Amino acid sequence: MRRNSTRLRLVGALAGALLTVVATGPAAQAHPDKEPPTLGELAQRHGRYFGSATDNPELTDTAYTALLGSEFGQITPGNGQKWYATEPQQGVFDFSAGDEIVNLARANHQKVRGHTLVWHSQLPDWLTGKEWTPAELRSVLKKHIQTVVRHYRGKVFAWDVVNEAFNEDGTYRETIFYKTLGPGYIADALRWARQADPHVKLYLNDYNIEAVGPKSDAYYTLAKELKAKRVPLDGIGLQAHLALQYGYPTTLEENLRRFARLGLDTALTEVDVRMLLPATEEKLAQQADWYRDLTEACLAVRRCVGITIWDYTDKYSWIPAFFPGEGAALPWDEQLVPKPAYHAIRQALR
Ligand code: XIL
């Protein structure tokens, strides 16, 4: 049986005991004696974070917010910082949704990943409903990026500056930004973000780039070019919206390593592992294996800085609404009860 011999368990227990002795600081002291360490605390012992996305409507659910505030070391606003939310009218900025989540996270001593500045989706109508000249769109884009980044300066440690810039075959996605400004919009976006906050980590983020393949190759090539031109890029975010029916990305660790060799951080930024419903014991066990394996892959690569699940409970997962017939993608079920995946993540983090 995998990873379950008495010897391994003994070694694990000893290592755990040692870590408990070595670990210091608020995270270690927050749970004296009996209470098991949280995923956030376990990850912190490896110098990583373990976080969750959240969204404004669910913050009225007190059972939900209790776990959100205690189990995780990092939070990503699921929608609150997107363009439609932050600049609903041209030049009129609204940070209320993003601030609500950032303030809650700060109150709980959680780090925040900013998400996201430039994306083809969830844009306001004033932006998509008009033909822009390149000069106009450049100035709209620069103002948006710099106003949002300045507002959250010192409050978020990273930004997904550009989200989902490539197609599956590694060609550029024909977004309003690409079509109007050409591929240089990515370097510009990174430079503008850097001007607005010299310290925040700047990421490119996408899905289906967990394995080595045409789409992750596109990021590898682009990252190398950007680095060569001294464009500020700190990391690549791998969303990791996985689905049991499509197979596990077995080259994940190798992929993380090649970005690390370029001098880049990586993070698993939006993890969920969906399945065709109904969920069965067998599928939940396979899902647990995948969560364990992806956690181990991140821990194996020094520059993989952390893992974020795309919310933590099936109660608030985006999957059923976007992939009809699929779901059960997160480590906690709809009643906020931990699933096998939760225990598998714990195992991996021990
Ligand atoms: C999703 C949110 O979770 C949903 O609430 C929203 O309706 C649509 O967007 N990739 C991303 C995320 O980068 O921003 C998306 O979030 C999921 C896919």
Question: Based on CA inertia axes, which overall geometry fits?
Answer: globular
What is the CATH superfamily of the largest domain? Glycosidases
What does the average pLDDT come to?
Answer: 93
Structural domains: how many: 2
Query: Strand order of the main beta sheet, please?
Result: 1-2-3-4-5-6-8-9
Strand content: 15-25%
Named at the architecture level, the CATH assignment of the largest domain is Alpha-Beta Barrel
Q: Give the radius of gyration.
A: 20 Å
* CATH topology tier name of the largest domain: TIM Barrel
- CATH C-level class of the largest domain is Alpha Beta
Number of strands: 10
N-to-C span: 18 Å
Please outline the major beta sheet: 8 strands, parallel, barrel
N-to-C order of helices and strands:
HHHEHEHHEHHEHHEHEEHEHEHEH
The tally of helices reads 15
- Computed structural class: alpha/beta
List the bound ligands. (3S,4R)-3-hydroxy-2-oxopiperidin-4-yl beta-D-xylopyranoside
Low-confidence segments: 1-28
